[in-house]
Amino acid sequence: MNSQIYSLFGEAQERTAAGRAPTLYSSLIDDLGQLNFADADDRRAFPPTLHSTLARHGLFGLTTPAEHGGLALPLQEAIDLISATASFDVSAASTLVIHNFLALPCIEAAPHIPEQRHVMRGATRGDLCAFALTEPGAGSDPRHIQASAFMHEDRVRISGRKIWIGLADWARWIVCFARASGPYAKGRFVCVLVDRQAPGLKVTHEHRTLGLRGIIQNTLEFQDVEVPSAYVLSRDQDGWGAAASSMNRGRIGVAAMGLGALERAIQVAASYASHRRIGKLRMIENSYVEQLFERMVLRREVVKAMLGASCRLVSAHGAPNVHLASATKVLSSEWCGLVADQCVQLLGGRGYDERTPVAKIYRDARILRIFEGPTETLLSHLGRCLLSRATRDEIADLFLSLGAAPVHAAAIDELSGLNETDGAVLIYAGWLTTLGLAQAVMSAGCFSASDCAAAAADLISSELATLRSRAPARPSFERRIHASRILNTFLQDAASSIRSPVLTDDYLKLAQYV
Fold first, then answer.
1. Is the confidence at residue 502, as pLDDT, over 70?
2. Angstrom distance (rounded) from CA 377 to CA 192
3. Where is the Acyl-CoA dehydrogenase/oxidase N-terminal domain (predicted)?
4. How many domains does the chain have?
């Protein structure tokens, strides 16, 4: 699959960012428009020519330096291309995010590995790279990762299992994270580059996911896989730093995917509403529908501005701001899911038909709220950073850089007196931070050139008012006991009244991941 791509490239085709982006964007749109992504969903495989199409345009080296064969695009232009790809197929865009934003930066940051230049050039030309972090019982939480990397003087022996690894069976290289052990271990975790054909590495179960059906996701079994120690990407540093950095950039990529899917859903629904008649009027002339579309477009405007702010901070500081990237990912994924749901509803029965684009977007968009950190995890993190004395200054500096220090101060005042360890309080504080950052970005006026920026800012103010109407009070012990009793009562009732074998089978399938 990968070797045939090399013929499309020559050393004379070195790519530079200057002047290429508009032409590249236009030609990519033309080529993607020729592919049948609906059939790809049914087959659970990409159109046969997709890989060569992406490679021909250089999209496997979006931000990679030109000396490694990459396009060396600024992040803003890279995410524009990812959004454009997602508007055709979220699975295809996911491939670009995994390869460009998760795996490739880890390799690029390790010039000490053997033949790094050769590996990078192969990757930018189509040798796919996977990112193996997630595990059963751990997810992406480093505290519970069980895969081990025993460090010898000249080699590393990896054992363990990874699940839901995108591109795994198509990849040439796999960036694997494991817990370090042995006399030569340095740091808690290591990041190791593993050849897909390495003895002992087995690609097993293919996950049948709800959406993203075009991209393959596998379980990986590492059975005493030995790799030369020169391929330890993290070298003398803790490997979790590399994972955290890639995942932070990955969140911007996921947000870009959400933007592209959201835009396409609005386009499809608006086209339908322009033709569908209800009585004497077209659906789009109904005042309720007009207001619904207005809010959809305003949400799109906010997400686009948040992505612009994230990219600008990358340009200024050299790396994504972890708090802004998390907030951008939360808003994009949550609002993409909301807009997709509303568009399905507008299309009625047609929206529920698998052959309708919005049905596919609805399924694909659901994973965006989970990829690279579930919404609840990111909100809890943002809330904890806002409330913790150790990290409060980081959030304060971010608001200050956006010219919105009063917004930060108001959030701190509002949360004073609440239990900083309570889960509901952390989620609420996370939403305050997320919407506060969105409000700051829209109020700054330099991240959106649209004439509806003021209306988008009003939408955020409305969202904040709704959020504050559900502000958590300090839960009493009696209230928590009551909530627990309600759940236990249901479970006892279900145990005696629901005896379906399907329930038992589903439980057994789920238990293997717990």
1. no
2. 26
3. 37-109
4. 4
Round to whole Å and give the CA distance between 337 and 341: 6
What are 91's two structure tokens?
Answer: 């699975």
- Distance from chain centroid for Cα 246: 11
Mode of pairing for the β-strands spanning 217-228 and 201-206: antiparallel
How far are the Cα atoms of 4, 102, 142, 249, 305 from residue 105, in angstroms, in the given order? 24, 6, 19, 9, 25
The model's pLDDT over 319-349, given as tens digits with 9 standing for 90+, comes to 889 999 999 999 999 999 999 999 999 999 9
Q: For residue 395, is it within any domain?
A: yes
Task: For residue 9, tell me if it sits in a domain.
Answer: no
On the 0-12 / 13-18 / 19+ scale of CB atoms within 10 A, 267 is middle
Q: Does the structure show a pLDDT above 50 at 216?
A: yes
Confidence of residue 474 (pLDDT cuts 50, 70, 90): low
Contacts of 26 (CB under 8 A, 6+ apart): none
Contact yes or no for 355/268 (Cβ under 8 A): no
- The answer to whether residue 278 is domain-embedded is no
Paired tokens of 374:
């579930």
Is there a contact between 224 and 102 (Cβ–Cβ < 8 Å)? no
Side-chain-facing half-sphere of 326: CA atoms under 13 Å? 25
144 contacts 131 by C-beta, under 8 angstroms: no
- Work out the mean pLDDT of the chain and round it to a whole number: 89
pLDDT greater than 70 at residue 166: yes
The verdict on 434 and 399 lying in the same domain is yes
| 252 and 160 within one domain | no
The CATH number assigned to the domain holding 458 equals: 1.20.140.10
For residue 4, tell me if it sits in a domain.
no
Range of the domain at 496: 479-512
pLDDT at 243 (0 to 100): 86
- Say if residue 337 is in the same domain as residue 458: yes
307 and 387 belong to one structural domain: yes
